[in-house]
Design goal:
1% of the residues lie in helices and 47% in strands. By secondary structure, the chain is mainly beta. Residues 29-51, 167-186, 443-490 are annotated as: Disordered.
Length: 694
C-alpha cells in the first residue's frame, strides 16, 4: 500500500556530477509500467549491480518508480542507461504513488550516465519516458536516488491500526458475520449488516490517534453513499470523508482527522442487501496522543519484524522431476517467488517416503514463519527442520494432518538451513511445492522483486479505444495487432490477418465469423500484446456478442510473459466474458492457472433466465488488484475471486504481473461444440469500447 502523505515539490536541473548525500534507493521496492521479460524486472535497476537491468516493452510511454520507504530530503538522481535509452523523459514525484507531478523534462536525453541535481523532499521518485531513442524499449542499469533519510513531512503508516481491535456495528446479518470479522486480518471472513439504511461499523483504536487513511475491502454488497467518521468518545462524531458515488471493490482513502474511534457510516446501499466488508483497515500518522497505532511515516517491516529470507537461495532436495509433465521442476523453483513454477520429487525414484527439500539461507537466522503452497501432491505428515550445517537437523514444527494448498506455519527455531521433511504423501504421487517461503531475522536475504502498486483511488483512465474509425477501416494498429492462425481448444475457424475485423462507421468494432464457400470458417482475433500491458485496474468493454450454435465470443486477458516464452497456463488467464451460443442467457467469468485451468478453471456464470445476451449490448468488467478480482455485468457484481480463498482452495495466485487484452469470436471448440443445421452465418460480435482505469 502506498503511503498517504502530503504533496511535495522537487526541483531538478542537470549537472555533470552527483550532489552529496546517501544512496537511498538501493534495495528499495521498485515498480515499472512493464518489463521486457522476467530477467529484466524493475528491482534490477535498484539492486546496486551494473550487470543487471530493467528494460521495458517496446512502446511509449514507460516508467520506473522507487519507493524510498519514508519521506527524505533528496539531493540528486543518477540514471545509468543501457544502450536502449530515452531521448525524451521526465522526472516525476508523488506523495502517494498515485498522483504524479512532472518536475523535470528533456527532449534531448543523451543516454550513458546522466546526473541530475535535486533539491526537494519526498517518498516516491519516478523516471517517466515518452520517446525512445531506439526501436527497442527503454533500459536502465541503475536508477539511483541520493539524499538524507527522514526529511520533510512524516507520512502515513502502512500498519493497520484497526487489526484485532474491538469492533461494534449497528447490526449483523447473522451470527457468522459479526463486526469483529472486518478487523481480523482475514479476507475470507466478513461483517454484513441488516438490509436497511443507515448502518455503521466502528473500531476502537485504544487511544487517540492521528488518522490519515482507511481501506475498505467490500463484498459485493457495498455502499454507494457513506462517510468515514472519527470520534474521541464513541458518541460525538466528525465526518472526515464523504462520498455518494462509492465504487465498491477495494477503496483506499486519504483522510485527515484525530480520534480514538473510527467508523464507516453507510447511508445508501448499492444492492438490495445490507452492507458487507471483508476488511476495514485504518492507518495512522505521527501526532497522536496515545501509545498505539502508526509508526509516523516509515514503511513497517513485515509482521513481527521479519523478512523473507529464502528468496533465490541455494536449494537441494531428495530428488526432482524433469520430464514433459514437469520440466525442470528442481528445488530452486520453490524459492524463486514465481507462483507458476514448482519443485516436485522425481517420477522415477521420488514417489516414496521420505522426501525432502531444503534451503541454505546463507547465514544463521532466527526462523519465525514458514509458508508452504502445495501442489495436489502434498504431505499429510511432515516436519519443518533447521540445521546449522545441513547435516544434523532439529524439528521446529511437526504435523500428521497436513491439509495441502496454502499452509502458513508459526515456528521458532535457529539455523542456516531449513528443510521440509515429508514422511507421508497425500496420494500415490510424490511431493510438490509451488512455494516454500521462510521468514525471520538474520540470514543473508536477497531483496525479492517489488510488488506492483494497487490501482489508485480514484482510478483514472489510462488506455482506451472507442472504435470511431471510418466504415471498413481496420482497428488502430498503434493499439491492436491481428492474431492470425488456427484457434486452440478444438476451434474450427482460421483467424485472418484483418479481413474479419473492421469498423462499422457507427462507433463499433466488428469481429465477423463467416462460413466460407468451401465450408471452412474464418473469424478475427486481436490483442494489445505489443502495444499495451498492465497490472491491476478496472477493465471494461461494452459488447454485443454473437449468438448461434457453435459461436464462442470472448473478452479476456492473457499474461504478457506468454509472449516471451512462459507457456499457458503458467502465464495466467483472466476471462472477463465468454459466451457460448448454446446457452443464450448466460455469460461466464473464469480464472486459469497451472493448478486450476480448462474445465477446472475458477469462475462463475452470470445468468438472466430467459434472456439472450446476443440481443443487445452489455458492459463486462473486472476490478483487479493484489487481493481480489470482482467481475460484473452492467454494473452488477456477481463473482469475486478472493486471493486468500484461491490459495486456500485452488492453488497459487498468478496474477501479479502484466497482462494484455484479447478480443475474439471463435467458431466451434470443446465447450460450445460445432455449428449445426440451426447455425446462422455470418455472425458479428460488436465492440463499442474497451477502457482500462488504474
Amino acid at each position: 500500500m502506498a503511503s498517504l502523505v502530503a504533496m511535495f515539490a522537487l526541483v531538478v536541473t542537470q549537472h555533470p556530477a552527483r550532489a552529496a548525500g546517501s544512496l537511498l534507493s538501493q534495495g528499495k521496492p521498485a515498480t515499472a509500467s512493464s518489463a521486457e521479460n522476467a530477467g529484466t524486472p524493475a528491482s534490477a535497476a535498484v539492486d546496486g549491480s551494473t550487470t543487471t537491468r530493467w528494460s521495458s516493452t517496446f512502446s511509449d510511454p514507460q516508467w520506473l518508480a522507487v519507493d524510498l520507504g519514508s519521506t527524505a530530503t533528496v539531493s540528486s538522481v543518477t540514471v545509468d542507461w543501457e544502450t536502449a535509452y530515452a531521448k525524451a523523459y521526465q522526472i516525476q514525484t508523488s506523495a502517494d504513488g498515485t498522483t504524479w507531478s512532472s518536475v523535470y523534462s528533456t527532449t534531448t536525453g543523451a543516454g550513458g550516465t546522466e546526473n541530475l541535481t535535486v533539491n526537494g523532499s519526498g517518498r516516491y521518485v519516478r523516471l517517466y519516458t515518452t520517446q525512445r531513442a531506439t526501436q527497442y524499449g527503454v533500459s536502465v542499469w541503475e536508477f539511483q536516488v541520493y539524499g538524507t533519510a527522514g526529511g520533510g513531512n512524516s507520512g502515513c503508516s502502512t500498519t493497520n491500526a484497526a487489526l484485532n481491535k474491538p469492533a461494534t456495528a449497528s447490526s449483523a446479518e447473522n451470527g457468522g458475520t459479526p463486526a469483529s470479522a472486518a478487523v481480523d486480518g482475514s479476507a475470507t471472513t466478513r461483517w454484513s449488516s441488516a438490509a436497511s439504511d443507515p448502518q455503521w461499523l466502528q473500531v476502537d483504536l485504544g487511544s487517540s490517534q492521528q488518522i490519515c487513511g482507511a481501506q475498505l475491502s467490500w463484498e459485493a454488497a457495498y455502499a454507494k453513499a457513506y462517510q468515514i467518521q472519527v470520534s474521541a468518545d464513541g458518541t460525538t462524531w466528525n465526518t472526515v470523508y464523504s462520498t455518494t458515488t462509492g465504487p465498491g471493490a477495494t477503496e483506499l482513502i486519504t483522510l485527515s482527522g484525530t480520534g480514538r474511534y473510527v467508523r464507516m457510516y453507510g447511508t445508501q446501499r448499492a444492492t438490495q442487501y445490507g452492507y458487507s466488508l471483508w476488511e476495514f483497515q485504518v492507518f495512522t500518522g505521527s501526532g497522536g496522543t496515545g501509545t498505539t497505532g502508526g509508526t509516523g511515516g516509515t514503511t513497517p517491516p513485515p509482521t513481527g519484524g521479519t523478512a523473507l529470507l529464502s528468496y533465490n537461495k541455494p536449494a537441494t532436495a531428495s530428488t526432482y522431476q524433469d520430464d514433459g509433465n514437469c520440466p525442470a521442476c528442481n528445488p530452486a523453483k520453490a524459492f524463486d517467488e514465481d507462483p507458476a513454477t514448482r519443485w516436485a520429487t522425481s517420477d522415477v525414484n521420488g514417489w516414496v517416503d521420505p522426501g525432502w527439500i531444503a534451503v541454505d539461507l546463507g547465514a544463521t537466522a532466527h526462523i519465525t514463519k514458514v509458508v508452504l503452497q502445495w501442489d495436489p501432491a502434498y504431505a499429510t505428515s511432515y516436519q519443518i527442520q533447521t540445521s546449522a550445517d545441513g547435516t544434523s537437523w532439529t524439528p521446529i514444527y511437526s504435523t500428521t494432518t497436513g491439509k495441502g494448498f496454502k499452509e502458513t506455519l508459526t515456528v521458532d527455531g535457529t539455523g542456516r538451513y531449513v528443510r521440509m521433511y515429508g514422511t507421508a504423501r497425500s496420494n500415490g504421487y510424490g511431493y510438490s511445492l509451488w512455494t516454500f517461503d521462510v521468514y525471520g531475522t538474520g540470514g543473508s536475504p536477497t531483496q525479492p522483486p517489488a510488488t506492483p502498486p494497487n490501482p489508485g483511488n480514484p482510478e483514472h483512465l489510462v488506455w482506451s479505444d472507442d472504435f470511431n474509425g471510418a466504415a471498413g477501416s481496420e482497428p488502430d494498429s498503434s493499439k491492436w495487432s491481428q492474431d492470425p492462425g488456427r484457434g486452440q481448444n478444438g476451434e474450427l475457424e482460421t483467424y485472418t490477418n484483418g479481413d474479419n475485423t473492421f469498423m462499422d462507421g457507427n462507433g463499433d468494432l466488428v469481429i465477423e465469423a463467416r462460413k466460407e464457400a468451401d465450408g471452412s470458417y474464418t473469424s478475427g482475433r486481436i490483442n494489445t500484446a505489443s502495444h499495451f500491458t498492465f497490472t491491476y485496474g478496472h477493465v471494461e468493454a461494452r459488447i454485443k456478442v454473437s449468438g448461434t450454435q457453435g459461436l464462442w465470443p470472448a473478452f479476456w486477458l492473457l499474461g504478457a510473459n506468454f509472449t516471451t516464452g512462459t507457456p499457458w497456463p503458467a502465464c495466467g488467464e483472466i476471462d472477463i466474458m465468454e459466451h457460448v451460443g448454446k446457452v443464450p442467457d448466460s455469460v461466464y467469468s473464469t480464472l486459469h492457472a497451472p493448478a486450476y485451468n480448462g474445465g477446472n478453471g475458477y469462475g462463475s456464470p452470470y445468468t438472466v433466465a430467459g434472456s439472450d445476451f446476443a440481443s443487445d449490448f452489455h458492459t463486462y468488467a473486472v476490478d483487479w488488484d493484489s487481493t481480489h478480482m470482482t467481475f460484473s455485468v452492467d454494473g452488477h457484481n456477481f463473482f469475486t475471486a478472493d486471493r486468500s480463498t484461491v490459495e486456500q482452495t485452488r492453488g497459487p495466485w498468478v496474477y501479479d504481473h502484466p497482462f494484455y487484452i484479447i478480443l475474439n469470436n471463435a467458431v466451434g471448440g470443446d465447450w460450445p461444440g460445432a455449428p449445426d443445421a440451426t447455425s446462422v452465418f455470418p455472425q458479428r460480435m460488436l465492440v463499442d469500447y474497451v477502457h482500462v482505469l488504474q
